[in-house]
Amino acid sequence: MGAVQTSVWVEDLAAVRRGPGVMTMAAVLATAEPRQLIDGALFDRLVSRITEDELLSADLATRVLEQTLVFLKACADNPDVLLSPSKAVDGGWHTFVLHTYEYACFCEAVAGRFVHHNPIRTDDIRTGEALERTMVALRATGYRVDEELWRVDAADCNQCHAGCYDSP
């Protein structure tokens, strides 16, 4: 894949207040790896926390965090579209949100706004329509989508476990 396609970035990235662990857009453009959206130390801390909190292997926690970053990039690129995480990705989002300072800085740098996490339950989420929209938005980011972490499992009711979404 080529460079990450962007549509919602602040005009003057040099003017963006970045906190620790948030990469500039220039650093991201050279790669299509979502882990480049945050610095390595923050990435490693979040993977470690996901491993502990979600009881996952380090490899699976890494995949979850990567897809969380892709999801948040999709939310940034689609501020007026209701997007919803998969169950696995929601766990990664919860972990990142708990690192409030780094999460707020990330949101400002990537989305130009705070990407809120609001749990709701709607027919849109239950029917899978929100997941369909989310998949389109994920693919449009230019990042690899780990299909296994977004697969709908009828027994799991996809996102229905918490009904979380980005609230524009």
Write structural notes for this entry:
It is built from eight helices and two strands; from the N terminus they run H-H-H-H-H-E-H-H-H-E. It has helices at residues 25-29, 40-54, 58-77, 87-98, 100-111, 123-126, 129-140, 147-150; strands at residues 117-119, 164-166. Helix 2 crosses helix 3 (58-77) and helix 3 crosses helix 7. The longest helix is centred in the middle third of the chain and has 20 residues, at 58-77.
**Average pLDDT value?**
79
Q: Bin the strand percentage.
A: under 5%
Low-confidence stretches: 1-17, 24-31, 154-163
Helix content class:
40-55%
**Main sheet: strand order:** 1-2
Distance between the termini: 29 Å
| Shape type | globular
Q: How many β-strands, per DSSP?
A: 2
Radius of gyration from CA coordinates: 15 Å
Order of helices and strands: HHHHHEHHHE
Major sheet, described briefly? Answer: 2 strands, antiparallel
Structural class: mainly alpha
Summarize the structure.
With 168 residues, the chain is mainly α. The protein contains 8 helices and 2 strands, in the order H-H-H-H-H-E-H-H-H-E.
Write the layout of secondary structure elements.
Elements: H1 25-29, H2 40-54, H3 58-77, H4 87-98, H5 100-111, E1 117-119, H6 123-126, H7 129-140, H8 147-150, E2 164-166
Antiparallel strand pairs: 1-2
Helix pairs in contact: 2-3, 2-4, 3-4, 3-7
